[in-house]
Amino acid sequence: MRGLREKAFVVAGGATGIGAGTAERLAAEGALVTVGDINLAGAEATVERIAKDGGRAIAVEFDLADDDSVRRMVDRTIAEFGAVHGLHNVGADLSPANLGRDKTLLETDLEVWQRTLDVNLLGYVRTCRAVLPHLLEQGGGAIVNTSSGTSLGGDASRVAYGASKAAVNQLTRHIAINWGKDGIRSNGVMPGLVMGETVQKQNDLELQRMFVSAARTTRLGRPDDLAGVVAFLLSDEAEWINGQMWFIGGGAHLRQ
Fold it and tell me: Which residues cross the membrane (predicted)?
């Protein structure tokens, strides 16, 4: 894809799943990749796979809920690669201690709301605020935020998670509206159920059957299904796409 080779990208949440798949795809396209994650061992494993295939990447431990660690991740990227040309946000708190307690409005404690919004929404605010000035200074760049298909149709449970992802959609459009004329492209992907490591560990067979039943395909998603789309949106091939949220979920939602 045009515009990826020798360009530096931050994957914020690249230890497993969609983030790891995207980091590996970007590196395969010749990009220089910072694999950031709170799970440093997982980020290092992603980097090892990239290096084994001849790519170049670094692992950086960071926390979406911590301002300083976000800034350090961006600074490390620039120190290592000389610049930062784009950002893929894909991290979220999917832990049983948080998402496992995210139910209906009347059942979900404010503590869960606060943690979910601090990581899933404000975490993306932090990374975008850290990267955006550098993109503007160099005349442009690309951001791809990961939202969720839940932000489209709602959900009977996981109210805080769904609200955080709907807000990510608005954040993504806000960036495009304000800085598109300055060369910034800001788009997002809304995955259906993707069988990354976290979802596999949850092993929620009822949820899996529900997603397959709703989709216009015979299988659930794989990290590679999103990795190719994100790499495209970060590349110069997508230079006329801005402010868009793409649902990638086997046709479970049919929309313009």
Answer: none
